[in-house]
Amino acid sequence: RQAAYAELRDVEPFTRCGTRIGVMMNAGLRDDMSALAMSGADGVGLFRTEFQFLVSSTLPQRERQTRLYRDVLDAAGDKPVIFRTVDIGGDKAVPYIEASMSEREENPAMGWRALRLSLERGGLLKAQARALLEAASGRTLNVMFPMVSEPWEFDAAKEVFDEQLAWLRDRRKRLPEEIRYGAMLEVPALAEALDLILPKLSFLSVGTNDLTQFLFAADRANPKLAERYDWLSPSILRFLQRIAQGVVGHPVDLSVCGEMGGRRLEALALLGIGYRRLSITPASVGPIKELVRKIDLGELSGAMQGWLASPPLDMRAALQDWASERDI
Ligand code: PEP
Ligand code: MG
């Protein structure tokens, strides 16, 4: 099968009905970038910048960050990379930042993490903004903020970038050719403010790992709960469908960057409720491209609409049967 996927590397993922699906990959380290050419992904839909922080015993200095981001952009060539600003805290604790916290958190996943931490540790975000802007001089920079819960948090983060941009401009430094800002939708509250945040964004990426944890109130790191809820539940799929419908008509690229998109039946469900871009683990790129080429979106979305209106007892089994009948 690996050989079959290698053949698909240069094949563009068009559905049977002729729609181009974006299949991007998730990455976090320099070494991950070799998978871009190997998998034939369209780009990096989520670069988790916190990995550099997690593997380091001290705070990575700005120059080190710049070097990493530049290397990543060099490795990507013409393909886009979406850099997510650090998502530390929660399940991704770093001792050199945690040590400064005054108290232990009872619920770190819902705590002082990601953009919340970046905005309060302003120096951290400033350094990262400068590193990203410098690394992308003369190219396109795609920046995405994690755990945006209310639109003002996006504004506050973007302001930090604007200040750094002005600083570089004043010093006649070469700036990025274009800067595109996006948000992750992984906190359910943001879905209720979609109309308020969309005009600010170039792209929106749904983080189904955290979103599911918050929708079901089920800790994503607790093994006792790992099998309890299904990504193919009507609640999750209806929620995701409403987001996709809310984005229609806005010039905002919508994607899913959670693990869900890399799984066969889950990817089918996402395509069936309106998603056209997935960012997934590199090993899933080949299998998902193959899947895309076998489907007819009209037929798939018809089936999904029926199931979401009147859910079968076992959504997973229904989708599996539907796929098997079509040799998918
Ligand atoms: C997510 O929450 O779905 C996501 C992609 O981000 P992470 O897994 O890094 O929290
Ligand atoms: Mg997340």
Automatic annotation (TrEMBL):
Top-level taxon in the UniProt lineage: Bacteria
Subcellular locations according to the entry: Cytoplasm
Record-annotated membrane-spanning stretches: none
Family affiliation: Belongs to the PEP-utilizing enzyme family.
Name of the molecule in the record: phosphoenolpyruvate--protein phosphotransferase
Origin species: Qipengyuania benthica
This protein's encoding gene: ptsP
Portion of the full-length sequence here: 426 to 753 of 756
